[in-house]
Amino acid sequence: MIKVILARIKQGYRTSAFPKEEPVLAERFRGLPVLREGMLPEESEERAIACPTGAIGKGPGGASIDLGKCLFCGGCAASPGGAVNFTKDYRLAALSREDLICRPGEAYKLAESAGKEIKRTFGRSLKLRQVSAGGCNACEADLNVLNTLAFDLGRFGIQFVASPRHADGLLVTGPVTRNMRLALKKTYDAMPSPKVVIASGTCAISGGPYIGHEEVIGGVDKELPVDIYIPGCPPHPYTVLDGLLRFLGRR
Amino acid sequence: MTRPLLQTGNARAASLKDVPLYDIGTFRETVLENDREGGRIVSFFGCVPEGEGQVRLFAVLSRHREGVFFILSSDVKGSYRSLTPDCPQAHLFEREIYEEWGIVPEGHPWLKPVRFAPRRRKDGPEIEAGIMDFFRMKGEEAHEVAVGPVHAGVIEPGHFRFQCHGEDVFNLEISLGYQHRGVERAMVEYPGKRRIHYAETLAGDTTIGHATAYCHAVEGLSGCNVPARAQALRGVMLELERLANHAGDLGALSGDVAYLPTSSYCGRIRGDILNITALVCGSRFGRGMLTCGGVRFDVDDVMRQELLERLDRVMSDLKCAADLLWETPSVVDRFEGTGVVDKKMCEELGLVGPAARACGIPRDVRSDLPSGIYRFSQIPVFTCESGDVFARAYVRWMETQKSADFIKEQTEGLPSGAVIAGEGTRLLPGSIVVSAVEGWRGEICHVAMTGVDGELARYKVVDPSFHNWMGLAVAMRGGEISDFPLCNKSFNLSYCGHDL
Ligand code: SF4
Questions:
Q1: What is the pairing mode between strands A84-86 and A56-59?
Q2: Contact flag A136-B496 (C-beta cutoff 8 Å)
Q3: Is B281 part of the contact surface with chain A (CB cutoff 8 Å)?
Q4: CA nearest to B278 within chain A
Q5: Does CATH place domain A116-247 in 3.40.50.12280?
Q6: What CATH number labels A33-91?
Q7: Are residues B67 and B214 in the same domain?
Q8: Residue B32's pLDDT band (boundaries 50, 70, 90)?
Q9: What ipTM goes with this model?
C-alpha cells in the first residue's frame, strides 16, 4: 500500500488546465493551413496534382484546401515557394461541409454553438456512442486518450457510453465501409431523439485516403445527417475536445 | 529442403523468373516439409491470373536462424488439396485465397469468409458481411453469446461468437472484415502518390511499422540506398511506437483487472510517448515521417536533447507504474494461468510477436531477418515460458526497456549526413521483394511484385494480427467468458490490419 501512495505522489497531478489554458503542441504539429494570397496558377496546379486525396482545389483567389479531404501530410507545404503553411492552430471543427474549405485571405469558419436548443439539452451532459466504421484505428486511439486523466473528458459532462439507447450523440470514425453500413444505420436508429451526429476524422468526412474505393461509402454524411465535422488524420485530441465544446456553446 | 527454392534476404529484390514454378502436388509437399521441420509460412497468396481460370499461388517461407526467405509458386485451376489439415498455420491464408479468387482448397476444415470482400474475379457469388455459418454447440444447457460488430467502447468493429456452458467457454469464433476498405487492391490500382498513405493507415497504431515495411519494399525494388542517419531515425521511431503501445497495453491490462493506479498512469504515459513522436514529426502516430528513400524530418541537437530528457522521465514514470503491477498479488493472480496458449499450439498456428515470445519462442524479425538499422544494431529478444496473460504482459514490459535503451543509443550516436537519398525510386521490372519488419504486434510482411513495365502488379500485406487472431480464440478455450476482455487485451490485435 505504501508503494501505491508513493507512486501516486511521484506521478503527480497531470490533468491539463484546458480550456482555461491553451495546450502546448509540438512545434512541428500541422494544424490549420494558411494559403498565400495570389498564388500562381502553376504553384497551385503543381500542388493539386501532388495531393494524395485531391484536397487542393482551384478558386478565384488561387488555391483552396478542403480540410474534409486533407490528410495533413504537409506535402503541399514542403514544395518550395512557401505558398502553403501549416500553423499550430488545432481548432478545426466546423458545422457544415462547405465551412471546411480553407481559402487564401479568408478566415476559417470555425464551428459555433449549434444553438440554444442544443445547449439547453446537451450543454451540461452529452453522452456519446462511438462507432468505428472502417478506417485505421488511429482516430479511435486518440479518442480513447480523451478518457485518460490528461484530458479527463468526464469533467466536461461528456462521456462515451456502451449502449446507443443511452446516447445523445453518435460519434463516427472511418470512411463507412460497405461492411459497416448496416451496423452504423442500426446504431443510429437505436438512439432516442433528439440526437446529433459527429463525423470525426478525414475518413468520416470524405473517405480520406480511401476516397473512390468501391469498398467504402466515403463519408458519414452520405448515410446520416451530420451536425459537426472534425478534420484531421487523425484529429488531435484537443481538436476533438475543442470541437465538442464549441458545438455545445461552451467555448 | 530437398527442392530448390528462391532464397532472398529481407527487402532484397529478386527476379520473378527465378521463383521456381512447381506443380501443385510438389508445391504442397514442399510447404508441408518446411512446416514439419519447424518452419513458418510468412505469406501465402494468389496472384494475377495466368490464362483462363488460372491463379498463380506464391508461398513465402522462413526457417528459424536461416536469415533468408524461401519463395516458390504454383499454378492452380478450380481447386487443389488443402494444406490446412496437415499444416494449421495455412488455415487463414487458404480461406483468403478462396475468398479472393474462388480457388477451393479441398478438405479445408473451416472454409469461411475472411473479410467478406468482393471477389477479384467476378465469377463468384457476392458475400454479405457477417452472414456465415458459425460453429454451434448443442446441449440442453449450452448457450451462445454473440458480441459485435459494434462493441461497448471506443473500439474497432468485429464479431465474436462464444459457445458456453455456464461461464465456461467451449469455443470462440471470431468473424472480421467490417474494416475492409480494399487497400491491397488500391496499392496497385490507385495513383502511386497515395501508397505511402495507404501504408501508414494499414493499421494506424502501427503507422511507422507498416510505412517502414512499404518503404523497404520500394527501396529494395529500386536499389535505392537509404542514408545511415535516416535508417537510425526510422529505428528510433519504430521503437517509440513499440514503447507507446506496450505502455498503453500494460495500462489497459491493469484496467481490465480493476487495478486503477497503473491503468491511469499508463494511459497518460502512452500519451507522453506519442508526444515524443510528435516532437520529431508533428504527428502523434508518426504520420509523414517516412518517405521512400529516407525520412522527412531530421533531428537537430536541441531536439535530440529534449527527446532524451523526455524519454528518461517517461521511463522512470513507466517503471514506477509497471512495478506496481508485479508487486500486487491480486493483479499477478489474475494474470497468471489466464488465457494460456502452449508452445506446441503456438508453433502450429504460427503466432508472431509478443504473443509468440510469451510462449517461449524467440521469434523476432529484428534478430532473425534484420533489415534497416537492425542489421547494425541488435536488440536482445526476451521470452517467457508460461504463455498466459502474465507472460504476454511481462514480455511487453521487458521489451519497453530494451526499446528505450535502443532509442537512447541511436539518438545519442546518430550518424551524420543526409536523411533522404538523392536518387529516385524507379522500380525494377519483373521483380519480387519480401519486406518484413518487427512491428509492436509482431511480424509485418509486405510482398511487392512488379510487371514487365516496372509498375506494381501485386501488393500483399500480412499484418501480425492475421497470424494471431486464432491465438486469441484458442486462448479462450476452456476459460471463463468473464476473462475475455483481459485475454483480448493481452493480444491487443488489429482489426483494420487484418481486414485491410
Ligand atoms: S497536406 Fe493536405 S492538402 Fe496538402 S498535400 Fe497533404 S493531403 Fe493534400
A1: unpaired
A2: yes
A3: yes
A4: A26
A5: yes
A6: 3.30.70
A7: no
A8: very high
A9: 0.92
